[in-house]
Amino acid sequence: MIPAHSLKSIKDRAKNCLLRPYITCQRQPVADDTFQFMTSFNMQRPVKYQTVEVKEERQSKLIGILFCHPKSPLGKAEIVDHLDYFHERSGETVDFFCAGFGAYWPPEFHPDKSVVTKINDTEWLFSSRAYNDIRKEIEAETSWEHSGEAELVLLSARRTHQNSAELDFSSAIVCKLEQMGKDKAFTSVRAFFESIFRFAEKHGGADPVWALSDKKGIETGGGFLKESILSLLPKNLSESYKQAEHFVVRDISK
Fold first, then answer.
1. 47 burial class (0-12, 13-18, 19+ CB within 10 angstroms)?
2. For position 55, what pLDDT does the model report?
3. By percentage, how much of the chain surpasses pLDDT 90?
4. What is the pLDDT of residue 216?
5. Nearest Cα to Cα of residue 6 among 156, 137, 146
């Protein structure tokens, strides 16, 4: 979980993440010059393995922009008190940005700020003004209009040829968390987030399967992310949500 006081802060942090190499640990065979005689008198070279770090350039990363006021019932019950765990659990394959939240703000920055929680002994602050600023910025770039309830906007951050980052709102979808809870799409927001984290771990990497490319095209890329999120829900709701694209889970590209 990453604090976000403006859309620019989200883009800057996404850029830093994409410019860091994606590191995986892989087992690779190691050549062995010794020979082993088997009972059949055939000589075989034993295969030995070592674990090595492999670095790849990141091309894309799944991010979420979470709109949830800390004083809302859902924010109090399922978000704020669990931010430290979400922060650890989300790992390297997905970043969730918390709109309106921040840390290490100077005294004059967002005078309406207040402390809402701590993560790794660092105070996290919340500003309604910063929250509203991000809302306005994203509404200007998409067809999304904030409902006033808790919502999660999911999209890809893509690396550009200029070694910067762009947020691909053409593939963005919005999940209305409070309505999904009422529909019993999940047992809790915590469970839903866990399913997204596992999905990102399974399909992520330096160039995730949902990332857009020239070969896939915009419609294919956006559709894959949406279908993937719907696949995490109970089958009956997944089918009904496909029919109600304008409401609970829908794309928000302009």
1. exposed
2. 73
3. 27
4. 42
5. 137
